[in-house]
Amino acid sequence: MRAVLNVGAVVHSIDSWALAQKLCATINQDALLKRPYPVLMQVRLSDDTQRPGVAEGDALALGEALLGLDALDIRGVMGVPPAGVDPKPYFARLWALSQALQQKPGGHRARAISMGMSEDFRAAILEGATIVRVGSALFGPRTQDPGENAHGLDPD
Asked: What value does the mean pLDDT take over residues 126-135?
């Protein structure tokens, strides 16, 4: 985790209180890390519990709790709709969640909405995305299993 924090600019995948606490502990132990560290809360936009992200129904409560952590700077939300469906309703729900989070005390900075990938970024932009992920449009399809770690970094 420390390796990612030392080279990354924003963590896009905070999806639980336990992960946030672990991240805070790492940040507080490393004098070289920026504080507060910018993060996005990852929201699971489907019922598939195998996918990462906080359940949509629990997201606002987690987001409000995250806003109270001094080591983190909650910049917004991130979500990926299920594959093979019209993404617009999912993007609209993530946008609405973002608006609700911004109304919470300290939520005024949580304006980022990371949604949309190479195949659906146009719809995401129309639904209010401020960040889109278009890696495969720029670099071509992935050539390795997403579960593999190409750089040998320790995930902890």
From this structure: 87
Helices (H), 11-118: 17-29, 56-67, 88-102
Tokens representing 5 are 């924090």
Strand partners, 115: 79
Question: pTM score, two decimals?
Answer: 0.83
Q: Give the Cα separation of 122 and 120 in Å (integer).
A: 6
Look at residues 95, 23, 88, 17 and name the one whose alpha carbon lies nearest to residue 54. 17
CATH superfamily, domain at 2-139 = Alanine racemase (3.20.20.10)
User: Dihedral of the CA atoms 112, 116, 46, 68 (nearest 10)?
Assistant: -10
CA distance 3 to 79: 24
Name the pLDDT band for 31 (thresholds 50, 70, 90): confident
14, containing H or E segment:
strand 11-14
Structure confidence by residue, pLDDT tens digits, 32-66: 777 799 999 999 998 888 889 999 999 999 999 99
Does residue 83 register a pLDDT over 70?
yes
